[in-house]
Structures are given as structure tokens and as C-alpha cells.
């Protein structure tokens, strides 16, 4: 049994003295565990970093075995982000969510493509990371897991414009007019989740984080009696700090 | 042939050490048992002495026979510069380089969301105590160039910001004697992004 597939490294843990147990998200084979012989060696250590895009080769005698993995580096995402705290938080959060929310060996080609696109954008603009794009990716994750939100029209008035809230019960969008007296009970829907060209601001990112976090927690993690991953919580803390202090990535770099 | 249970136990204990597998443990055990006076007994004595006298320094987390450790107690070392490392092995590596003349803090790990290692698992008390005392002027974050190492460095930088100490990190990039065409893409990318003007 053998295959080759593009993969994003989600998690690595030491195995013995020089090997690694890795968890990767592949395009056609979903989340996969594998043993990497010599993965902690000087030659391979830079390759097996969380977030890196690789061309992975997996080999095992039987399909249900752990198997061995080797890889060629395609894009060293982690290397581009080491100096950028918010970009690192986004990367860790995306890897943690994939690692903990997705079932093993279940293909999610759309999610893989969206994550590859996000990681590419993150590598290019690490100093000003694409936060809105990240939260749009979280909505894709929810959809891939079967809990997609309906954000194209209002659940009350059926209009397609002026959507401002999401019902926490049904996950359907509600317009300002349709919300009426119930708007205090609804989750704010920032425009950056609806418009691909809208990069949003720290306040909008926080609204987006609360919205997707609410549904991830309720639909995905609560079902397994688990909290959201610690990396997702750290991302929230970083966004709160951004919203309160307004420090840019550049400011944080200059503080070093 | 059946090996005596005492020798089997010795081999299995040795095989658990880093760098030794069952085969090399068997060779080491044989070498020890064939020269009990010159190899086995001195090794036993050295191990007993180390177990009795070596402690973790309460201030920096280093391993030493005195408390505080010889690095913390050395008046020749600059107390205003603290180098933060992940493990005692990293401290020894920096001491071998002989460039750092300040003091150390051994964290005992790094923040790792995926492995569940949080701030409460890091040995930070000694560092914060020294920073709060006002003696420290610079903290060098000598942590690994990994996602977890960088995350820990940023977290520490924020934690130290209110105290007004300068926080720096090690450079990332091309190793001494390294030719560019044999370097991996990740190291090259890190080297390019942390280039400096000549």
C-alpha cells in the first residue's frame, strides 16, 4: 500500500530518539498519522514543522497500519511566520482545529484547498496576516463537518442584503430589519465573513471569532465533551489585545 | 544460551538510555562486566555520587552540585543579562560556545498547544523574580526555531514588556560552513527574512 499526496503538517511529536509521529492533512486521504524515521534529525527537522506544505509519500504493508512517511518540502510556511505572533497564532489555531476536529482518513478536498490557500496568503503577508480569510476558512471547516451556516439570505425576511446577525439556534443569517427586538439574542455577523474582498478590522475579527467559535464549540467540540483547542483560545487573546491596544504586527516586531 | 537475570536487567536498564539500543546496551554491559575494577566500580561510584549531590538550581533550573548553581553564584558573570533556554542541554551547548557571559534560565519546555503544555508548565519563577528585582537589563530568548519555540518567545516577550527590559532572540539562518545550495528551503527562508544591512 503506497500513495503520494500533497499534505499540510498539523502536528508532530517525538517518537524514540530520532523519529517523529506526524499528523498531516492530505488532499485525497484526509487526516493521516504516520511514523517518520529520522524526522528529528538535523537534515529533516526543518521540513517537519507545523503548517509546512509538503509532498508526502506514505507506505505500509496494509492500509489500516500506521505506516511510514517521507516528504519533499513544497512551501516552508512556518519559516515565514516565526517573527510574527498573530500569524503564528492563526497557523497554530488552524492546525489544532484540523488535528482535533477532523476524523482520520476522511477526505476533505475543499477544506484542504482552502487551508492551502490560507497558508499561502499567510506566508506572503505574515506581518499583516489575512485574519478575515482565516475566519472564512473556519466557516468552511464547519460546513465540511456538516454544520454549515446559511449566510446567503435572511431567515425572517428572505432578503439578501443587510445581513447583520446569525441565529445561535439555527445558524441562519438575519437582517437588521428581520432581527427586530431579538437582536440582543443574536450573534453579530461581520461583513468580512460575507465579502471575500473585505479584510475587516480588529473589532470585526473578534465578532467573526465569536461567531465561528460559538458554532465550533457547540456543534463540534461539545459533542466530544472537549473545549476548543488551547491554540484557538490564544488566538482569541491575541485578537482581544489587537482590538484593545491596536498594536500592529510591525509595532510588535519593533519591540523585540 | 541463557543469560543470567542480573545481566539481563543491566542490559535492559542500559538500553533505556538515549543513544543506546538493545545491541549497544549488550556491548556496554559486557565491557563493564569484563573490567569490574576499572570500569564497573568507578561508574557505580560516579553514578551514586551524582544521584546524591546533583540538584536542580532553584533560581535558574540548571543541574549542579551546589545551590544556587555555579553559574548563578559566579560573581564574574553579568547578572543584567539572562539567556532563556528550553533545556539544560541547550544551556550546555551555549556554554560550549563560550560567548554568553551572563546568566541563564532553563524553562524545562516550550508552550505547545498541540501537546497540551501551557504557561503553568514552564519554570519561570526564577526569571520573573530576577526581572522584578530591577537588576536585569536584557533577556535573550535562545529558544528553538520551531513554531512552538517562536510562540513561547512571543509570549515571553509580552510577559516581560511591562518591566522595560530589552528582549532579544537568536538569529536564524545559514550555519557556519554551510553552502546555500545544500540548505533546506525553510532555513533559507528564515535567513532571508532575518537578513541585516552591512
TrEMBL record, chain A:
Q: Mention any Pfam family matching this sequence.
A: RecO_N
Q: Which residues form the DNA replication/recombination mediator RecO N-terminal domain?
A: 1-75
Task: Kindly provide the name given to this protein in its UniProt entry.
Answer: DNA repair protein RecO
Asked whether the UniProt record includes Glycoprotein among its keywords, one would answer no
Give the protein's function.
Involved in DNA repair and RecF pathway recombination.
Report which superkingdom the organism of origin falls in.
Bacteria
* Family designation: Belongs to the RecO family.
InterPro entries hit by this protein = ARFGAP/RecO, DNA_rep/recomb_RecO_N, NA-bd_OB-fold, RecO, RecO_C
Keywords noted in UniProt = DNA damage, DNA recombination, DNA repair
Q: Which Gene3D superfamilies match?
A: Nucleic acid-binding proteins, Recombination protein O, C-terminal domain
HAMAP family recorded for this chain?
A: RecO
Write the lineage as a comma-separated list. Bacteria, Pseudomonadati, Pseudomonadota, Alphaproteobacteria, Acetobacterales
UniProtKB/TrEMBL annotation, chain B:
Signal peptide from the UniProt entry: none
Tell me which InterPro entries the record gives: DNA_Rcmb_RecR, Rcmb_RecR, Rcmb_RecR_Znf, TOPRIM_dom, TOPRIM_RecR
- Toprim domain ranges (all copies): 80-175
**Functional description taken from the UniProt entry:** May play a role in DNA repair. It seems to be involved in an RecBC-independent recombinational process of DNA repair. It may act with RecF and RecO.
Q: Mind telling me which NCBIfam families this protein's record contains? A: recR
Family membership, please give it.
Answer: Belongs to the RecR family.
The protein, known as: Recombination protein RecR
Question: What's the source species for this entry?
Answer: Bombella dulcis
